[in-house]
Amino acid sequence: MSSNAPSSSAGGVGSADSAAPRRNSKRPKYSKFTQQELPACKPILTPRWVISAFMLVSIVFIPIGVVSLFASRDVVEIIDRYETECVPENLRDNKVSFIQSDANKTCTRKLRVKKLMKQPIYVYYQLDNFYQNHRRYVKSRSDSQLKDNSSWNDVSSCKPEDMSNGQPIVPCGLIAWSLFNDTYNFSLNNQQLAVNKRGISWKSDRDSKFGNDVFPRNFQNGTLKGGKILDPTVPLSKQEDLIVWMRTAALPTFRKLYGKIERDLQPNETIHVTLENNYNTYSFNGKKKLVLSTTSWLGGKNDFLGIAYLTVGGLCFFLALSFTVVYLLKPRRLGDPSYLSWNRNPGGH
Amino acid sequence: MSIVTTDTFSWYQVTRLVKQGTGRVTLGIGDGANDVGMIQEADIGVGISGVEGMQAVMASDFSVSQFRFLERLLVVHGHWCYKRIAQMVCYFFYKNIAFGLTLFYFEAFTGFSGQSVYDDLYMILFNVVLTSMPVISLGVFEQDVSSDVCLEFPTLYQQGPRNLFFDWYRILGWMGNGLYSSIVIFVLNVIIFYDQAFRAEGQTTDMAILGTIMFTCIICAVNFQISLIMSHYTWIQHFLIWLSVLTWFLFLFVYGMLSPTYSKNVFQILTEALAPAPVYWTATLLVTIACTLPYLAHISLQRCFQPMDHHIIQEIKYLKKDEKDKVMWKREKTKAREKTKFGFTARVDAYIRSLRGRLHKKTHSLKSKDGNPS
């Protein structure tokens, strides 16, 4: 490795080359870039900068934290866990056989509204201990098949749910096969509460990933049904429950949008829910919850963002104060040569 | 230590003896073909190109054109290179640990099935495009003090041999910083985007969205961190840091514009899902600051209580105390140099010769004044 270092030749002050008569000089052309003399800003960390930086962070973060916390406090949430209570008491010893049997799975629940809930109120189903993010589960789908009718045959990545009775399944794969199939019906004061199930999925999914010429076929035709049965006359781009379900969740505890209630709910109202407890989460000790929630500009109910901002802002404020105290008690004059190492321990390098 | 040899003992054998005997790093400098053996034997070989040809240059690690440039090579470029390489390597450890460990933490939430939370292209581009440019500009342009100060204070070169910037304390410190950053990035994002909706329209987070958010936090935190490490900002460093962050958003935008056949889960993720969501931007800001806060506190404390030599000199230059108090500056410069003891007799001889030469000139001019032709 031989590096010719033209930058080393920059030190030629008073060299023979500059005297007349000039020999043929091989000195490279000077440029600020190659001589590393580009104009530069060299900020240094003075006490003023340190304290200002911390104060700035705390001044910005504390109001953001307060605003976030207020937004989260405004959100009203009703959570109802029902998977154990919706199994009749006498059959609770063997919930798996109950859910796999043909018994009546209708269940009624009562939800009490504690605070005013302004519309739209979002209805979610929440599953716990369900690993939609498992690698083999995430792989088990065929995006080309979902998008385009001409690829209805493309089921290779969908094993084990690729073929049934010798025919390809549309939509294939474990994700579609395990589609959630509990249903909820809401009534308030004996009047049906309408749940809008349109527009619950991402628009880009409806328009570009799920074709409007793709229809379910040969779906849930095998011996073991994993979930919901799809209407073969409705194209996939309109099967919004499927579209929402196919967006695999990040964590084992997740909520998915079921629908929207488009009227206000007053405090102390009681909502009656008639639900069909069809989905088998009992084989793996999963939990099922029904969630009604309003949203704010920040989303659903999560105090954590506001608390985190307040914590970091408060910590920065505390650091700014501590540094002020430190700099007042033990000041070090900037540029004080007595701190140079050869002055601090002379002769002891 | 000075060594004088006779012709029968070659220089490369001397170099080997010195290396083995003292265990120190040796530098060999020469300009002729007979020096090639020594140059190759020494740890650092410097070849001088010139009168005796290019053999020494071709065998050497570094080559200069004049012997006196050795001073600049060591004291300016050697000093800068040591610090640049030390900082670059520590930063590389830091950013890859901060990124890689988040993948491992996520595995705990996927039943250890090996599912990656990031899209493949994110991971490919991380080290190639998104975080490489600022650190390369750090390695090429970083100067803790300017070249004149390096020449005036040769003691600063000692930071290299004493290994002040690449000892275990620093390496482990940077790895610890990476570990802390990875924990902060992962935990804060998972809790903020846990199960509730993240937008006013009620949609919940899925894996592609969480992965993109976490990756955005990593890119911003890591690039903000390097801006705190640098002390010498040319326009290139500014530009490259901003470019890295903007490239990430631009890439996300363009990737999202491709057909879903190629972009799969990232299709329109920025334009549709993330950019309009205020929680995306607030979470990124929170995580970026939370990751870099301990480092900022650490360097502030270090500069206050245990400033290093180059810190003091930087401050003197910044406050222009070298111009205001020239006496102090000259005094410190002298203290920072130790008179060399090498070649003592040779220099004494040269001094005597120069004195004789001056005396000869004086007597010569006196004689010519008397009218005697010389």
From TrEMBL, chain A:
Keywords: Membrane, Transmembrane, Transmembrane helix. It is a multi-pass membrane protein. The chain crosses the membrane at residues 49-71, 307-329. It holds the Pfam family CDC50. It is found in: Membrane. Residues 1-32 are annotated as: Disordered. Residues 1-19 have a biased composition (Low complexity). PANTHER family: CDC50, ISOFORM A, CELL CYCLE CONTROL PROTEIN 50. Belongs to the CDC50/LEM3 family. This is ALA-interacting subunit. It comes from Hibiscus sabdariffa.
UniProtKB/TrEMBL annotation, chain B:
Gene3D superfamilies: HAD superfamily/HAD-like. Residues 57-307 form the P-type ATPase C-terminal domain. Signal peptide: none annotated. It is found in: Membrane. SUPFAM superfamilies: Calcium ATPase, transmembrane domain M (SSF81665), HAD-like (SSF56784). It comes from the Eukaryota. Keywords: Magnesium, Membrane, Metal-binding, Transmembrane, Transmembrane helix. The chain crosses the membrane at residues 91-109, 121-141, 171-195, 207-233, 239-258, 279-297. InterPro entries: ATPase_P-typ_TM_dom_sf, HAD-like_sf, HAD_sf, P_typ_ATPase, P_typ_ATPase_c. Pfam families: PhoLip_ATPase_C (PF16212). It is a multi-pass membrane protein. PANTHER family: PHOSPHOLIPID-TRANSPORTING ATPASE, PROBABLE PHOSPHOLIPID-TRANSPORTING ATPASE. NCBIfam families: ATPase_P-type. This is P-type ATPase C-terminal domain-containing protein.
